Amino acid sequence: MDRQQEVLKTYIALMRVHGEFEKLVKKDANRYGLNVTEFAVLELLYNRGQQPIQQIGSRILIASSSTTYVVDKLCNKGYAKRIPDANDRRVTFTAITDKGKELMDQVYPEHRDHLVEFFEEVSDDEILAMKKTLQRMSHYE
Fold it and tell me: Which keywords belong to this entry (predicted)?
């Protein structure tokens, strides 16, 4: 095996799959008047509960300056709200509103089904192995 060639081919395959994921998420988000980043923040708040605004960017891999902008847009649409930390004035949480939860109750099951469908050609063992490998690689600095 030529490791360099296989690494390059694997990189290309990962980028292609990433592009397909982006298209899937964009299509799901756009159907509800959201962009991909807004959808990612709402999905995080929906599945993980309120989050410090300072940590949202690192959780969904966007710049902190963009995080504030996206949270502002979600607040203006009524899907999210800011909650000041009672113990630390430097910290502000972002939480999903009832309106945001209603939207995600409608959107998320269909989105989840699209993701499951995306993996229909992949066995359970392959999914677990891929997840383990990608988790190990995601700690690369």
Answer: Transcription, Transcription regulation
